[in-house]
Amino acid sequence: MITKLYEAKNHILIHAGYNNPVMHRHMAAHIIISANGKMCVTSGEAEYLCHGVMIPSGASHKIDTYGSAVLVFLYDCTTNIAKQIRTIRCIPEEYCRKIMTSYTSLEQAYTTDNYCRFEKLVMKELGFTDCTSFVNDERIVSAMKYIRSACFENLSCNMVADAVHLSQSRFSHLFREQVGMTFSAYLIYQRIMHVYTQLLQGKTITDAALEAGFSSSAHFADVNRRIFGLSASTITHDLMFTKVD
User: Fold this and answer.
1) Integer distance in angstroms from the first to the last C-alpha of the chain?
2) pLDDT higher than 70, residue 154
3) CA nearest 185: which of 28, 14, 23?
């Protein structure tokens, strides 16, 4: 199937065949909804058979979707949603069905407003009321904006620290405390999203990857697979990317 990826302000939504049979972990909190039937989620010695699941950031897991496509929400570590997902939790089947029905309607008539309505429905069904960022230090907010605008440049932690008038050690500590991930992890995340943006504008995967600071398209594909679970063939041949403005 064609993989569809939506980049919103504080999350990414992937609609794909998303089988990850090898134990792995991501730096974003997951909400995964099966399009058809149950999936098997394994974490440590625990195993869950469910139609949907929430997985906290950093939790080791593997997923067998039995061939079904899934919706995968990846929420930035800085969001209150990621903060609230602290344990692996199964989602009732009836909620999953409502979400999939709403997503089908979104695909038939995509607009930014319709996407926002779809996200609000998902949040309501799952009991979340706040999907905004919990980062409240203005220096770190400024640093994040700076990284997003210049992630494709040869940025260093010290350069960003200087830009927000902090020592490198103080900036590193404060960034990890506020954002929930290291500067380097956040930079990689933003570079991946820069590649997707450039692909949407018609650039080749090689040109986009090199511009974003990856050593090659293969390097980008490897990092992207480890973080988002998308294979190189999916990225190059079967990806539809939409930026939700």
Assistant:
1) 25
2) yes
3) 28
What is the CA angle 117-122-128, rounded to 5? 110
Inform me whether the pLDDT recorded for 200 exceeds 90.
no
CA distances (Å), 244 to each of 93, 114, 115, 130, 215, in order?
27, 10, 8, 18, 28
Residue 244, C-beta contacts closer than 8 angstroms, at least 6 positions apart: 6, 7, 8, 9, 112, 115, 116
> How many whole angstroms separate alpha carbon 213 and alpha carbon 226?
17
Give the pLDDT band (50/70/90) at residue 57.
confident
Pair of tokens at residue 203: 């650039």
Residue 32 banded pLDDT, cuts 50, 70, 90:
very high
Count of residues making up the chain: 245
- Beta bridge partners of residue 133, listed in sequence order: 79
Q: Is 25 within 8 Å of 61 (Cβ atoms)?
A: yes
